[in-house]
Amino acid sequence: MRTVGAKPGVNQVEELLWEIPASARADMRVPARIVADRELLEAIGADRSLEQLANVTTLPGIVGFAAAMPDIHQGYGFPVGAVAATEVPHGVVSPGGVGYDINCGVRLLALDLSVDALGDRRVGLTTEISRSVPSGAGRGGRLVLGRGELDRVLAGGAPVVVEEMGLGRQGDLLHTESGGCLPGADPAMVSARAKDRGRDQLGTLGSGNHFVELQYVTELADPAVADAFGLREGQVTILIHTGSRGLGHQVCTDFVRLLEPRIASWGITLPDRELACAPMDSPEGRDYLAAMRCAANFAWANRQVIAHRVRQAVHQELGAHEADALRQVYDVAHNIAKVERHGGRDVLVHRKGATRAFGPGRGDELPEDYRSVGQPVFIPGSMGTASWVLVGQDRSDEVSFGTACHGAGRRLSRTQARKHVSGAELRRELEARGIVVRSPSNTGLAEEAPMAYKDVDRVVDVVHRIGIARKVARLVPIGVVKGG
Amino acid sequence: MVGDDARRSPTRKTPPVIEVIDHPGELELRLSHATCAGVYAEAVRGLVAESQGSVPAGGAERRILSLASSTPETLLADLLNEVVYVMETEGFVPRTLEVGELEGGRLRGTLVGRSSADVRPLVKAATYHDLRVWQEDGAWHGRVVLDV
C-alpha cells in the first residue's frame, strides 16, 4: 500500500481501489474502500463523502468493509453510492443505508425496431409517453388503489400488477430483480400516512432526476453478451428511472423518527443521527425490514405500471406488432437492503445509490437466459448524454459485495446547475441535437443539465477496468420525458 | 430549552435569514430569527420556496398543526415532514406558519396558504443529518438538510 499525497489517510490498494484503514478513526470497525481512478478520487474528496463513508463503518455488525462506488457523492448519513453489509441476524439495519426513495431503480425495455426505421415517429412516441406517464408535480396517476388493493401490491409487488391487474407480462417479471417482489413484506408495518401518499401514485414518475428516456444503441462493447440481452446496434430502447414515490419516502421518515431516540437503549453510539439503525433481530428492526420490503415492492409495481403505459403508447404510435415485440431487458434496484450470501455467510447488503451486479458465478440467482453471462446492470448518464448497459462480473463479490455504480453521480448542486443554463436554453440545445424533450418544468430541466453530472463514460470505465461489471452497450437519447 | 421565552423578541433585533446551502444531492436550510418560533416559520417558508420556486403571495386556507416531538431539533424535522405530507396529499402550499404554543418539542400552530393543482414534489423528506436548533448571540438558529 502507498499513501496518496493529496488525500492523507487514503491508501492505494490497487490501481482503481483505495482504502481508509480501520485504524484511521477510533470508532471505525472495518476499513472503507473506494473504487475510483485518481481524478475521480480527487473529486470525491471535495465534499464530505469520505467522512460519511467512514461513519458507515461504525455501524454495529458491519462485515468486511464499507464500499464507495466511483459515482459517490455526499448525502446524509450514508453517502450516495455506498454499500455496507451487516451480519445476519445480530447486525443492524439502517433506513439511512437504503435512503428515502426505497427501491429507486432502472428498467430497460427494447423495441424490435431500429432508430432509422423509427425516424420522425420518435416525436409522437415521446409525446404519447409523456401523456401516459404522469411526470411529477404531485399529480396522481390514473390508478387510485383502495386500501385492500394497495396492501396486496405492498405484499406482492409487480406480480400483483401483472397477474391481478393485467398490466404486463410474465416475461417482465422473469426479467426483474427478485421477480419484482421481496418476500417478508408486511403491509401492517406501513403507516396510514405512507399509504395515503402512495394511494394514487402507482404509475407516476415523480420529480428530480426521474425520467423515461427513448434511446438507441450506438455501440456494442460486447456483442455476445448484447446478443444474450437481446440488444443490437441501432436498436431503439426505453429506459425508466423512478422509485417508490411518497410511500417509500414516508416509510423511511417514519422509521428514522422511530429508531433515532431508541439507539442508546441498544448501546449504539453513532456519529450521525441519520445513520439511525436497529438490530435486525429487534422488533423495530424486523418492522422496518417488513415495511421497507413493502416499499420496494411498491416501486417494482410502479415501474411495472409505467412499462405497461409505455407499451400502450408504443401500440398507439407504432402499432400492435411493435408493442407485442417490446421486451423487458431487466429491472434493477439501486436503493435497497437485501439478505444475500457473501463470503460463505448471510449478510444484509445495504445499497444506497448502488446497483447489484452479480456475475455468472451467481447464475442461480439470475433469469435462466442470463445465467451464463451475468446480470444486466444499467448506468444512466445525465439527461442528453449516454447511458450504459453493463454485465455483472464475479469479481464484484470480492470488491463490493456484488455491486456496481448507479449513475454518473452529481457534480454540481441544483442551484449551481441553474446558474449555468436556463431550462429554456437547455431545451433548445437538446432539441437542436434531435432529442425530443417533454418536461413540465424548465426549472427541473435546468437542475438536471448534463454539466451537473460527472462524465458517465469515465465512471463506467472505472467499473469496467476494475472488473465488477463489464461494458456491453452504449445508449444515446432521442427523447426525454422528465419528472417535474 | 425552547419555551415562552424563546418567542420573546430579544433586545437586539435579528432580521429573519434563510440561507440555502446547496449540496450535490441535498439542500441544507440555515435559519436565523429573533425568536425560536420564527426559526420554525422561516423553515416552512424555506422549504416551500425551494420546492415550489417561490412562496405563495396569498391564500387564507388554514391547516391546524399539533406536533409532539422528543426535542426542538426533531420538532424541526417533524414540522417540515408535515409540510411535505400536506403538499403531496392535499396540494396545500403554506405561505406561513402561525405559531400558537411552543414548548420544548411541542408545537401548536396553523399553516396558512392555498391549495394548488400543481405542486412540485421535489423534497422527499427532512432528514436528521446535522439537524440543529440553538440560541446564540441573542438570536435563534436552525439547520436542517432536505433530501431532494
Tell me what you see in this structure.
The complex is a heterodimer of chains A (484) and B (148). Chain A has 484 residues and is an alpha+beta fold. Chain A has one domain (2-482): tRNA-splicing ligase RtcB. Chain A contains 17 helices and 20 strands. Chain A has helices at 38-44, 49-56, 115-118, 121-132, 147-156, 158-163, 170-174, 192-198, 223-228, 245-259, 283-318, 320-325, 395-400, 414-420, 423-432, 442-447, 456-466, and strands at 2-3, 11-14, 17-20, 32-35, 62-76, 78-87, 92-93, 105-114, 211-220, 235-242, 278-279, 327-333, 335-342, 345-352, 355-356, 376-379, 387-392, 403-404, 436-438, 469-482. In chain A, the strands form four sheets. Chain A has an eight-stranded mixed β-sheet, sandwiched between helices. In chain A, strands 8, 9, 10, 12, 16, 17, 19 and 20 form an eight-stranded mixed β-sheet that branches. A two-stranded antiparallel sheet of chain A has the order 7-11. In chain A, a hairpin with a 2-residue loop joins strand 13 and strand 14 (345-352). In chain A, helix 5 (147-156) packs across helix 11 and helix 10 packs antiparallel against helix 11 (283-318). The longest helix of chain A is centred in the middle third of the chain and has 36 residues, at 283-318. Chain A is globular. Mean pLDDT of chain A is 94; it is low at 1-6. Chain B has 148 residues and is an alpha+beta fold. Helices cover 27% and strands 41% of the residues of chain B. In chain B, strands 1, 2, 6, 7 and 8 form a five-stranded antiparallel β-sheet that branches. In chain B, a hairpin with a 2-residue loop joins strand 7 and strand 8 (139-147). Chain B is globular, with a radius of gyration of 14 Å. Chain B starts with a helix and ends with a strand. Chains A and B meet through strand 5, helix 8, helix 10 and helix 14 of A and helix 3 of B.
